[in-house]
Write a structure and sequence with these properties.
The protein is about 30% helix and about 30% strand. It is built from 2 helices and 3 strands. The chain has a 3-stranded antiparallel β-sheet, with helices on one face. The chain is globular and about 40 Å long. It starts with a strand and ends with a helix.
Length: about 70
């Protein structure tokens, strides 16, 4: 499986960023390159810069070791 990237985030309960406020979670992607995901991350981060409790991150998929074993 080719590597894919997502931008995930939302508005959190507090600045410790442990719990997203229900209904505010957002997922963008998948993107085929980090650069494309980074562009969206920058857009979302800049749009929410006045909110101290909103955060977005870039995440990438990881290979599933169980699937590799199934193919063998």
């Amino acid at each position: 499986m080719p590597r894919q990237f997502w931008v995930i985030g939302g508005e959190y309960q507090c600045v410790e960023f442990h719990e997203v406020i229900p209904g505010t979670a957002r997922v963008f992607g998948p993107f085929s390159s980090y650069e494309e995901a980074n562009r969206i991350w920058r857009e979302r981060s800049l749009a929410s810069r006045s909110s101290a409790t909103t955060r977005y991150s870039i995440v990438a998929n990881a290979p599933n070791p169980n699937r590799q074993n199934e193919a063998a």
